[in-house]
Amino acid sequence: MPELSVIGASYRTAPVEVRERLALAPGQVSELLAAMHAEKIFDEALVLSTCNRTELYVVPRAQADPLACFLDHVGRIRGAPPETPPGAFYRHDDTEAVRHVLRVAASLDSQIVGEHEILGQVKEAYRLAVEARTAGFLLNRLLHRAFRAGKRVRTETDLGRGSASVASAAVELATHVFSDLAGKTVLVVGAGRTAETAARALLGCGATNLIVANRTLDRARQLADAIARGPAEPVCGEDVSCPGADEGPPATCPALVAEAADQMRTEGGLPADAPQAAFHEVTAEAVGLDDLPAAVARADLVITSTSAAEPVLTHAALAPTLRRRRGALLLIDIAVPRDVDERLGELDNVYLYNIDDLDRLVARNLERRRQEIPKAEAIVEDEVAEFARWLASRGVAPTIRLLQKRLEGIQQAQITRYGRKFAEADREQLEVFTRALCSQILHKPLALLKGLSADGSTSERLATADLIRRLFDLDSLDEEAGRDGHTPRQP
Questions:
Q1: 51: annotated active-site residue
Q2: Which of 51, 205, 242, 438 is catalytic?
Q3: Which domain holds residue 113?
Q4: Most buried by CB count within 10 Å: which residue of 181, 218, 325, 405?
């Protein structure tokens, strides 16, 4: 029986309609884990559910089928068993399960490799398991190893640097162009998801004022209110974030971004490399398309994403206003067909970029990420090997061997220390006495370990071996043997 298993369905194996039937909200995850805990189906369990994957990590018990149990409980929660086609689920055991969770946390298994959200989602899944008391000794150690691997990949490689979607490319462009978004006004033309996602991320990077323009004023008001009510958050699965907001400096600016930033700072008088602003309270308002000229005049940054067949920002309507403008204006047109008349980009202090420009930026970033994958995979393999060594060291046999070695060392040290105080005829009795004493000390721990090896659960066995190793400082014996070249170094 494996010590650790994972079953799941992801974007790699299941279409979106299947993933929708398996997706669980946080409350449903808690309900599922509570049921598994009450029914004692597994020693330990954790559920990771995002828009692109639903996975169950378990320390199994004999006779328990993780997939059957999972589908049964999802069916109870949903009121009907989910329909899943053959091949929708995968399963990994032991080392492959360890490798899988570390690759997930490092975003190597993500649909957009290097995306930022998955590590936070893994941490949230762990929090729910801890609250449900289904994360025991093994999952606790495994998940903290996964967090370590994810952090190492983010800090030691450029896998997550640079945007990998059109919306995030718009954010990257704006944050490099303006350097400091504090106090900047963002005008969103259209009420679609892409424009909303980019606007939220820009506000999260320090922009404080939002204007939403839409053909339907009520829809513009709804969107403005929704964005203003909460902090800027990327939509699940979208690779949108403020560059450098998590840790470390922003990615090295690709050619498009560098040229735009240099040009606007030179011609538009923008400040050089000011520190990035923290999140501020957002003010938001809504306007109709008839009020676009006035709204554009107030904006520092315009993002357009409508479904209009003809340009919404026309040269005839906006050129007079923009010619009178003193400050620089950045126009980012995400729409297809285009929303912005290309002649507006020819005006002084107006800098226009369309979806083709952003696609080139995305392509450069994706290529850079692909080049970083081998480095990230090497980090994961290093962490997998460390975890495997640690797990093997918590086995019953190596723990017994080192415990016996520890007591033998104590016995010999005492004979060496006190033997000279005894007559030669008594030294043999001293050795018999100390050997018998050590055997008595060893008896209970050895019996406990052997009993757990035969009948105990994986979690209890590992936890007990770990406790004994720490009580008798057995890891130091492994380290000494490693320095002598006999056994691998322990993590």
A1: yes
A2: 51
A3: 5-156
A4: 181
